[in-house]
Every structure is written in C-alpha cells, then in structure tokens.
Amino acid sequence: MTEKGNILLVGVGGQGIILASKILSKGLLDAGYDVKMSEVHGMAQRGGSVTTQVRYGEKVYSPIIGKGQADIIVAFEKMEAMRWIDYLKPNGKLVINDYEIPSVPILVGKDEYPKDIIKELEHKLDVIKLKAAEVAKEIGNIKTQNIVMLGCLVEALGLNEIDWEQKIKELVKGKYVDINIKAFNKGKQLAR
Amino acid sequence: MKELLTGNEAVARGAYEAGVTVASAYPGTPSTEILENVAKYKEIYSEWAPNEKVALEVSIGASIAGARSLAAMKHVGVNVAADPLFTVAYTGVNGGLVLVTADDPGMHSSQNEQDNRNYAKFAKIPMLEPSDSQEAKEFTKIAYKISEEFDVPILLRLTTRICHSKGIVELEDREQVEIKEYVKNIPKYVATPANGRKLHVKLEEKLKKLEEFSNNTSLNKVEWYDKKIGIITSSVSYQYAKEVFGDNASYLKLGFTYPLPKEKIKKFANEVEKLYVIEELDPYLETEIKAMGIEVIGKELIPRVGELNPDIIAKTLLGENKEVIEKNEEKVVGRPPTMCAGCPHRGLFYELSKKKNVVVTGDIGCYTLGSAPPLEAMDTCICMGASISAGHGFSKAAQVNGRETKVFSVIGDSTFFHSGITGLIDIVYNKGNAATIILDNRITGMTGHQHNPGTGYTLMGEVTNEIDIVKICEAIGVKHIEVINPLNLKETKAAIDKAMEVDEPMVIITKWPCVLKKSPNEEIEEYGLADRKICEVDQDKCKKCKMCLKVGCPAISFDSEKGAIIDDTMCVGCDVCLQVCPFDAIVKVGE
Ligand code: SF4
Ligand code: SF4
Question: Which ranges carry the Pyruvate/ketoisovalerate oxidoreductase catalytic domain (chain A) (predicted)?
Fold first, then answer.
C-alpha cells in the first residue's frame, strides 16, 4: 500500500459532516491504513463553520492538513468552499454542494451572500458540483445530504476497494441504514 | 484490538486500563469528552463536580483513600483548581493521582491561550505530554505508575489538537488494581506550616529523583537521522516537526517534560550541528535549555501566539511556501458562531439591548454570544463567575462616584453553581444593587449538554437531588426574586424594568430548556415542547421594516423583494420574532 491522501470536509454546523467523516475514517482504518482525523468542537458548532480533516497513508504524523496540501475538498456549502480553497493542492479535486447557508452578517443585512462562487472556482480548477440537498430530498430525507456527499468523495478519490455499505451499517442507526445506502450510491453516480 | 479514538477517548481508556476507580471533572472545551467517556466504564465512579477546584479535591481525597483517581479540566479550569494543586504537590498521594489539563492554543473555544506547562514547574508537579491518541492512552497508564512510585500527583497535558484528533489506539485489558490501605499519617496529609516545611524539603528531593528518571525514561527518546539538524520538541509539535523534516533531522522527543532530562538534552545538543526547539505557545523548553548554556533557535522564528501547524514550521524554519490556489476574500463572508434558532437566551438579550444606561457584565457559556451582533448586549466577559462579582465592583464604582448606571450580570445555571454563588453572597453581604440574571436553560449548553446540580441527573445517568436555584438565592438573603419565561418578551421586559427600580440585590431567573437539549419526558410536558408550532411570515402584511432581524435568529433571512423569510427547517416556534414584529406579519403556521 503506497497510497496516501489528505481529505478536507468543510461546511456548517448541523450538516452532518462529523458522521460522514466518521464513516470515512472507519473505512480507511479497516482497509489497513494509518488514519488521523481532526475536528474542532465548541464554539464552531453554534452555526459556525465546521471542518474535519482526514489523513491516511502508511504512516501519518500531523493530524492537520497544511495549505496547498489537500487532495480533495468536499464542501457541503458553497461559501465554505471558497473559505478553504487555499488548502487544496493546485491539481486537487473539489466537490461542491450547490447549497447556500447564509451566515449571520448576511442574515442581518450587513453583507450579501457572494455571487458566482462556483463559476469563479470553475475557472481555476475542475469542480464536481451537485445539489446534494435536492438529491437527498428526492431520496426521502434531506438529512442524508452528508452521505450523498460522502458517495461523491469516495468515487472522486477512487476508494472503491473498501466495503462502504458495511461501514454505513456499522455507524448509522438501524432504520436509517437503507436510505443512507441509497444516498451513498446516488452520490457515487453523480461524481462519475 | 485497534480503534480510532480521539485523545480524550484515549485518556478515558487509559484511565480504565490503569484501574482508576474515581474520576471527577467540570466540563470545558476541549476536555469535556474525557469524563463523558470515563462514564461509559461502569467500573469507575465518575461525576461532574460543580467546578474544577472541587473536581481536583475529590480526586485528591480518593487518592488519599488509596484509589487511583483522575481529575480533568480545560486549561483555565486549572486556575480554579490551582489552590489544592500546589499543596497536593507537597503531600503527595496514596493511590495514583492524575490531573489532566487540556490547553487550547489558538483559542478555538476559550478566553485566553495560557500555556499550562508552566504550572508543572510552578506547582512542582511532574508532567507528561502525549503527542497523539496512542500516547494519550499509554502515558495515562504510565502516569499512574510514576505517581505511585514517586509519591507525586501528575499533570497530563493535552492540547485541543490532541484532544479532538483521532488516531489508531491499541486497546488492552483493565489492570486489576486493589485499593491501597489508608493509614492515618498526619505529617503527610495535614499541611500545617510545621508539616509543610518538611514536605517541601521532601518534594525537592523527589524532584531530583524525578530528573534522574527523566534522563533514563523512554518517554524521552532520541530518534537519530541526519545530524545536521537536531530538533527538541514535545506534544503535537513533534508530529508537525516529523511532517516537515521527516528523515532530514534528528529528534529528541520529550514525553516527560517536567523535570526536564538535562543530561539527555546536553548529549543530544552536542551531537547535532544546528539545534531547533519546536514548541507551541510559550518558550517553555527553550528557556530551560538556554539556561543550560545551550544555543538553540526557537521563538525568534516560531510564533509564541496561536496554534502551531506544519505550514508555520516549514515557512519559518525552512522558508518554504506552498503553492496554493488563490482564494478570493471578497467572496467569503465571516461565519461567526451564533445562538441557535429558538435559543431561550435570545429574548432576554433582545430586551437588554434596548435598555439605555445599562451595563451588562457577562460570563462563560453560550450566552456570551449575546455580545455578538445584532444584539451586542454585553459589556464584559472575564472568566467563570466574574459576571456577578465584576458587576458588583462596577456598580460600587459607579455608586461611589455618583454615576447612574444599572448593572445586570448574566450567568448560566451551570456557571452559577460553578462560581457565581460566592459573587451573589458578596452582593448581599456588602449591600450591592447590581441585578443578577441567571439564565437557567436546564443544562450545561456550550460544552455539549452535560448535567449539572440543577438538572436532576448525574453524569452516570442516575436521577438525583436537584439543587433549587430559587432556594439558594433565598437562603443567601436575596429579597427580590423573579422566575420568568424568557420567550415571553413582556414578562422579560417587566422583570428588567423592575430591576431598574430596585436599589437592592435582585435575581431574575430565566427558566426554559436549551433548544438543543434532549429533554426528559417530564420536561417536554412541563414546557409544552412537543406541540409547538413553527412561525411563518405573512408576505402581504410584511412592511420590510427589518425589525425581526434585530433578534438575530439564524432562521430569519431577508429578501428585498419578498421581505422577511423564515426557514421552516430551522424555526422551532419560540415566538420571539413574532412578538417583535410591529405589523403582526409573523404568524404561527396553521393558525
Ligand atoms: S418585523 Fe415584521 S414587518 Fe418588519 S420585516 Fe420582519 S416580518 Fe416584516
Ligand atoms: S419563532 Fe422566530 S425567533 Fe423563534 S426560532 Fe422561529 S424564526 Fe427564530
């Protein structure tokens, strides 16, 4: 096993990023990689921006990813993609959920939600964009957005040797397993 | 068996494997999950103490009784626990005693970024610093051995990155540790001046032996690679250094950082050409090493402010700058944390924000967010409990100097139990007139919903005695006490207005469960939480005055065409915005 990777998941508190990264890191662990995953709790959960960083390889030292070092960024929210874009390798991949969550300065009218974020990023690099919220709604539960995004990530990185459905079964509550597996496979399709 | 654990989970596992039987803590980011995970092991008695001083004292008592015990807290919590800490260093232990300090470089969720390694030296307590989850577990176990062998308490120092990063941990079985016999020993455990003088001499002897241990232990280990560069480092900085330098440097990785292994450091320094000290925050290692007459490069290049990372090391020591994709700052708007939709604190701060000639002294908790726009209804936030005492000081200064300012101190339920009560006693005893508002949301919110003396449940999930805040205030001698529903703005305003008039100690208790709390059934019923209907905007009636935006609810946004919009996935139907709209444009869905 010579592969290694740096994965950055960014979004907003409440979008289910933590669960997605849990499934991701458990899958990588069971595949035999050394894995480190870093997340910040506390204030960030009160509507602030949330990131988790997952690093895997034969041996991983730092739990955090440096600027220009992420192989892939999975942005659960548009503006968060721009906030973290300097962490992506110049030839890295970007998966964006075409979804807006206005922050407080925008809600109270001090700022406007920035326009054409995806367009501008598409200028700079190849972007996989999707409307995960809509996809999740169609499947039947908007809360599976995170797993749609996870499916995309797995496909984009080609991490296909791992039995992800099994991991979902292990980490998702019983009655939600099927719908999450559906969401996962839909996400995979969309990234192709 | 291997598992992915955070540093906090690993410390809990380490305590379990080490045969710990008593653990006490006060929640605080980034330390909270240590005790939450200890509580999963039924072999350990675990509890939330009302504050960190109590937590450490409980652990000290258990240690003297002969049990292996643990206390855990965030860095500023150690300030609260400092009093017993300095003396237990003198008395030593019976059962092993470990104090975990979780520091927060970068202040992800703290009011300062003090470097608690200084406490080890200051309080004369041996310190261990793990650099990842596996070590967090290992070092916890070793800490108990050292504690008992040398008769000292141990400081186990973590940082946010250690606490909240997951890494692979090898699980082992629990060691069966019998509780030690307790033998009455007055010269050891009664720190009177006469005993203390002798204990101090003993402690200095212990520290000498511990320095010898430090020189020999594999906790401090050398990794030889290229000898052109030598790096002395500890904690997560070791991982960052390895990431940047790899095999291009040799390392002296310090896991036991007080007392420092002076001989080992000297030897290492002699064998390398250039010596770096890579450490986060204060020049703790650097100062000591320089005092030994060794030349090192450290803080003149590596910042002493903020969290360290591989980028900073590569840039400052190697002049490397990574190629990055440029980010367009114009397309990024800040995303500060905010009170949740339906937060019971919102109405109170909305009403306070409208008052003129009022000063609001704040405290530590979710309600500190009352200082953020658009509410901005807070003037100070210093530390746990300071809202009441600093408020009292502020109002006395105003009084003495003839200023007409009314002071309101806002403090949460958990924080009131932590260290607000003493401040309130001060107000009553010294005839202050600052008004105290206790925001009783029935839980410890900010740290992620831990029980506290007011909730009726223990950390281990048992039903218990509920401490009654009203009765405490009465017992202290407060004559004016109002318990209100903070979602009712009229009621809230009336209570504030009354406090403006009363020239005596007054307490307002805003009682409503945190919107994120998983309330027990009784509570759901008591507050009618099950059948609340959410709100919507009647667009025909909305005059686009933006008044509702002033409550700062994240569920409300504004569109210049449509007017106010309420996000139906976020709104919980607290009705605060509904009461604010001057045109009755906000209505209950389905009514
Ligand atoms: S306060 Fe009422 S009228 Fe004014 S913008 Fe909000 S909903 Fe519209
Ligand atoms: S009722 Fe109004 S203030 Fe309360 S949660 Fe809903 S939108 Fe927010």
Answer: 13-188
